[in-house]
Amino acid sequence: MTTDPSFEIPARPQRRFPHDSGVEYEGGTEFRLLPDRSFDDGSLPALVRELLAAGPYRYGDFHDLPMPLWLVRDEETADVFRVAVRDGTVRLHVLPTTESAGLRRFYDRLRDASGGDWTVERHVTGA
Known about the structure:
Distance between the termini: 32 Å
Low-confidence stretches: none
Order of helices and strands: EEEHEEEEHE
Largest sheet: 6 strands, antiparallel
Strand content: 35-45%
Oligomer: single chain
Shape: globular
């Protein structure tokens, strides 16, 4: 019997606004979603793009980065978080106002869209 992963957020990032740049985040929580199978190089980012396009998400991607990265808003829960694909994992980065409901719904949709199981690892920094 499997147990659903917890998306409890023990630490939120602190926002800083340095004078010489935009915004920086210190500390926080990241959830790493690891698929039970390997994906080809482009197929995991493509799966995430298809999931975002299917909604209920409003999202934008960051260009000129070495990995796919999106700022995502779940229109049903109003949760905002970042989604990255790196090293064969999907990473959900908690922002200061992110709640667990939006992360859980993204995970459930990703699991359904992929047709497989996923392991969730929570990483906390600066707590």
